[in-house]
Amino acid sequence: MSSPLRIAVLASGRGSNFAALLAARERGELSADFVLLASDKPDAAALQLARMAGVPTLLLEPHDYAERRDYDAALFERIAASKPDVLVLAGFMRIIDGDALKPWVGRMINIHPSLLPKYRGLHTHRRALKAGDTEHGASVHYVTAELDGGPVIAQTVLPIEAGDDENTLATKLLPLEHQLLAAVVSLIADDRLALTDNGIAFDSEPLRKPLRWHDGKLTR
């Protein structure tokens, strides 16, 4: 893009993935303007992180709305007012109403801690261990109305070692999540990714399978 990518971020918790995006920009690896950090939780550390970084914030609490769809409509109306090019769900722990997200399909991505399509939803580390998997990982995907079911852009893979538990897996995976998300957002900022009617296009070519983060770079 000729100008920095305008990014709005949605987060419910500590904001570590948001922090990773800020750090990537500071390192010169991401051409971006963060136009909004929105949260549904008043105690989300991501809000304070955004304020410290000079990023506009929005707190909108679900209990102020009678229906989920009313909340989502209000949230996305306010997000639209910030005129982002892309929305990044970075630990946003809500299922979004399909009507609210429909205008954003192709412009909204999510980071999920599993090798999708495995383990959509919660408790992904626990489920991978219970299944006896030998590897785990994280995925960045386009958001659609199907929970964690949108087209997968890229993944990072982590071997599961003897003695691993939920905490060790989460601890080892988190820095890889940060690297993966920043790399994907950088591709979007450089106009190298798009969601088309025929699926994901990467460098104007169909992406037949998710990109892989390995040795500090994304590869086919």
Automatic annotation (TrEMBL):
GO terms for biological process: 'de novo' IMP biosynthetic process. Keywords: Purine biosynthesis, Transferase. Residues 6-185 form the Formyl transferase N-terminal domain. The active site is at residue 112. GO terms for molecular function: phosphoribosylglycinamide formyltransferase activity. Its EC number is 2.1.2.2. N(1)-(5-phospho-beta-D-ribosyl)glycinamide binds at residues 15-17. It catalyses: N(1)-(5-phospho-beta-D-ribosyl)glycinamide + (6R)-10-formyltetrahydrofolate = N(2)-formyl-N(1)-(5-phospho-beta-D-ribosyl)glycinamide + (6S)-5,6,7,8-tetrahydrofolate + H(+). Signal peptide: none annotated. One of its GO terms (cellular component) is cytosol. The record marks 148 as: Raises pKa of active site His. (6R)-10-formyltetrahydrofolate binds at residues 68, 93-96, 110. Pathway: Purine metabolism; IMP biosynthesis via de novo pathway; N(2)-formyl-N(1)-(5-phospho-D-ribosyl)glycinamide from N(1)-(5-phospho-D-ribosyl)glycinamide (10-formyl THF route): step 1/1. It is an enzyme of class 2 (transferase). It holds the Pfam family Formyl_trans_N. Belongs to the GART family. NCBIfam families: PurN. Catalyzes the transfer of a formyl group from 10-formyltetrahydrofolate to 5-phospho-ribosyl-glycinamide (GAR), producing 5-phospho-ribosyl-N-formylglycinamide (FGAR) and tetrahydrofolate. This is Phosphoribosylglycinamide formyltransferase. It comes from Dyella dinghuensis. The lineage of its organism: Bacteria, Pseudomonadati, Pseudomonadota, Gammaproteobacteria, Lysobacterales. The gene is purN.
